[in-house]
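Recall that a protein's primary structure is simply its ordered list of amino acids. Everything else, from secondary elements to tertiary packing, is in principle encoded there. The following example makes that idea concrete.
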Amino acid sequence: MTRSSSAPAERRYRRARLMTLALALCAPALLAGRIQAAPVAPSESAAITVISMEKDCFGCSRGERWVLRRDGLVSFTVTGKARHQTQDEISVGAVSSEDFEALARLTLGQGFFAMQDVYEDPQTRDGTWVQMTVELKDGASKQVFRRDAQGPAELKLIEAALQDLLGRITLKRKHP
């Protein structure tokens, strides 16, 4: 029996879709504390001051960048692209200290600072990508970049929890 050359790609796609669905279903429970990551002391998570996520793709007309700050400020930028004749749009909102703390603890508990800096298939040079950045009080920061469905389940779990939280934030558009 011979397999189509697209069979491995199709399996990866299906696996990625199932993982995304599972993470999306688990994210609210994670943020609510019903699913526990590795225990993290509040003093450790207090060092996190900013959590950001940028998403884009080569052919997309717009990207997005979310920045959540411990002081409660949230900024959301829809990044425009000259080749598509789109402009940046900036909105602001607020995140509760409890939600920020839950996300900070989850990020640490899932081992964000021990993750590789880049997760991507070397054969893929376009497609969707996500870059998460966590900044600390002392000025240190860690960035993790992933393309398509690459990366460990822990990274995807953090991303899904962040996406769930972002869906609950009310934004007010600022004029560019």
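The chain is about 30% helix and 30% strand. Residues 33 and 102 are 8 Å apart (CA to CA).
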